[in-house]
Predict the 3D structure of the following.
Amino acid sequence: MSLELFERHRALLDLALAATVTRSGFTARAEESTDSEAVLEAEGREAFANYCGSYFYLDQPGVGERIGEERSPYGSSLEIQYPKTNLGTVLPAAARAREAWRRFTLRERAGICLEILQQLHLRSHEIGLATMHTTGAPQALAMRQGGILAQDRALEALAMAYQELRGVPSSDDAAGSRTQGELGLTRRWRQEGLGIGLVIGCSTQPNLRAYPGIFANLMTGNAVVVKPHPQAVLPLAITVGVARHVVREAGGDPNLVTLVVDEAQSPIAQSIALRPEVRIVDYAGNGDFAAWLIENARHARCHVFGGAVNAVIVDGTANIAETIASIVRSACEYAGRMCTSPRVILVPRDGVSTPNGIVDRDRFAELLALEFGRTLSDDLAAARLLGAMRLDEYGTLVQGASALGEVLVESRVIDHPEFPGAQVYSPAVVRVKPEERSIWMREWFGPISFLAECESTADAISMAAAAARSQGALNAMLFTLDAGVRVAAEEALGAVGVALCVNFGRQQSVNDELPFCDYHGPGINPAGNATVCHSAFVAGRFRVVGDRFFR
Amino acid sequence: MSLELFERHRALLDLALAATVTRSGFTARAEESTDSEAVLEAEGREAFANYCGSYFYLDQPGVGERIGEERSPYGSSLEIQYPKTNLGTVLPAAARAREAWRRFTLRERAGICLEILQQLHLRSHEIGLATMHTTGAPQALAMRQGGILAQDRALEALAMAYQELRGVPSSDDAAGSRTQGELGLTRRWRQEGLGIGLVIGCSTQPNLRAYPGIFANLMTGNAVVVKPHPQAVLPLAITVGVARHVVREAGGDPNLVTLVVDEAQSPIAQSIALRPEVRIVDYAGNGDFAAWLIENARHARCHVFGGAVNAVIVDGTANIAETIASIVRSACEYAGRMCTSPRVILVPRDGVSTPNGIVDRDRFAELLALEFGRTLSDDLAAARLLGAMRLDEYGTLVQGASALGEVLVESRVIDHPEFPGAQVYSPAVVRVKPEERSIWMREWFGPISFLAECESTADAISMAAAAARSQGALNAMLFTLDAGVRVAAEEALGAVGVALCVNFGRQQSVNDELPFCDYHGPGINPAGNATVCHSAFVAGRFRVVGDRFFR
């Protein structure tokens, strides 16, 4: 094994390590185009086209029949066939690969992981298209979330793990040692991964949510089994293929990273998670399944993102137009299909203070409806903001909205101007009574938002905190001119693990995610316990055994 | 709040922080006597005498009747009465105290915790006597484990937590902040403890095993409820009293650290552990209870030490006398009542290689029995090595030994020459067939060891690994002259989290514990997941919430 890959990528690793200390936010690669971009983009288009209608080649053991049921929300049936994998073969192969992986030093592992990231980066375009055509995300978002953003989150996990592991003495050798005292007692430490890490992909942000677990596991000496969502296999299949290639080239056993594909009709995530060899589970998606994992996969460490009822609290604002634009933008991006999307807008019964006087609750509702209308009036602009959706998955969510309360904004079905056969569903906004918690105090994952009036701002804060406590929440948007309100919100919401986003304007979305900076999902409420930049994310994935010996 | 305490103890903290990096082992205070030692010792004796037959004063809320059932294994009935605490009062008080504690900065918390340690250090003598007369540990061991060693382990947890927390930007203010970019977005991070940490004390090493959890919890912003073993309350009661005093003097709410005492007939550890306010549980002791906690207190992080079947594998040795002396010393210390005590000695059927030829299995058994006899022949020396025991707790363990196999060494009941009324029970050694795993492959916590012959050294290694995997093990002593055997043992036992102790001599005990150095209980097997010097021990006890705001 050699340190060539480590040396090649060392400068980037050093920058990433520095960023884990400063927490200033860091991105490894500029997004602007370079000369080679056009070539890479053309290659990406061709590669993506070649996947469609074909058999996705993976040289894994235990491959039997072929399966695949992805359909692009943008209209095309992708018709990609994947190997259906026999767990009885793959898990022992992964365990054997981990044995080989144990002999790689920390630097060797880091070099290999950095090289995987570099190879993924070069294939960002095909991965972006794969993300777009499986998840339905708007193209620009898919490119970013499937590509650079996922890669940066991966780099963050890699750097956090490197930092933790080099804290173990002499850990850069597979087993460091040190001789102490006159008697010649030698101490030697070994890092041990826990076993196999299962990473379960989600349907809306497959790479972004899976990469931190994959790279944290590899760095800490674990094998990885990737089980994508049946509707969003391709982005992770490409990822696994790249990882296997790099590991093999570096002299490792490619079964260190394997792909297990299932079908919606016969899901296998539960049965893999319960296998005793699986010691770590990373998952993002449905809150009930996240809770099931924590409840049942008790032999494993579970890092999950579940449901989130993110609130918007509108107490006051210096500029009501900016405030409403920020709310609408945050709610419309990807049609509310992000774990950070706002779910409920809480307004005090007495209205919203502004420098020009009170905006009363009805006027607020009217302004909100107008802004949704304006933002989504142009079909192409709306489609590029919302992305495409499958009717079967999201239609029912919205169609039932009118039964829930006063429909303030109707959901529209838009034929996508660029993709014949693709539908776009715009968000509905439903006005409910705040006491109807059973309606709004759960996650409606998709294009629907609720507007609820509260007794007071204090009431709104306590409702947002209650929703976080019981259902989970990652963030809360707060608009206020009152320093006391801000302190009260910081206290009440901080204590339940909700990140406040205060006085955002038109330019800012609550969905913006900044690697190496935001403590996304700190684990205080059920929405998630997978903060990549908290050392708890990596520290529990390995153990250290210390030996003492005399000659 | 002031930084005076932090500045006062800063030099020590810096040394401790350095030691967490070098892992060279570190002790804060020299053990040798100083001029003031004699005074402190006299004060300690007086303080301890004053506790006996008295009511232990603690100014906690919710105090009702008085309870207490400690009896010294050294003969005296201590007759100390403790406040019986009403959980319905104590837990809300602890939660309120935590709210106040949240406003202390990291440095302020560190200063207060370091001052608590300093105050505990000044009372090491009374704490040592309290430890001796509740646990039955030999006096020198009780002084060390209840005093300096426990304090050093506490300092280690404190330094690890400090290190983790200062990794959060600007975390030395209660909420650090930083303004980014042209738009004036300010990011601010808050550290949040999880809630209340329950620390459950054990009967044999109450302070040593409880301090890391107590100090890790305090540093990370949690309140602590200490529930001692009903037979070993005093060492932790003194500790809680000191902590409350220092917290109050520093302007905090003393209910940050509370004591809850129960009786053997009506234990309350389970019901406290299941309270939703309790988010962290630290426990050392019975393996079944450790497993129960992990299984049932799922809303809480559990750091536990459970049972351990530590093996001794004798393949070969350059000096059979040294080898046997090391085994016997390790087995006799504190009469096998440490989690590190060896439990089973595995010898290959073909005997033990030495430079002078093979020592066959019968000769090995004979030498072992002789060494036990020699070590324990003098009553006073034996008593000082073994410590005192209560008949009801340990007698039955040994009395049934003869039914289990060939009794190689009989247990002796020794009247303690220094303490009339105190009994000392010397270890029995029972020779069993290796296939009788149901006998030896479980933890016999006390003065009994097993000798089992194996097919081969490879067989012995695999049996030791199997015992670790199923029952837990912290260490294995290995004696060998064969580098291949050592590598095989490192592989097989390292993978199941067992720390190897290779070729120890008469001077070395497997029970030696070195703060800031040994990764005790790494969490790979059931014996424990509470390695103080692994950042996972502290990192999960707090969360970080990041807010973003505009003016």
Summary: Chain B has a mean pLDDT of 91. The CA atoms of residues 4 and 536 of chain B lie 30 Å apart. The first strand of chain B starts at residue 63 and ends at 67.
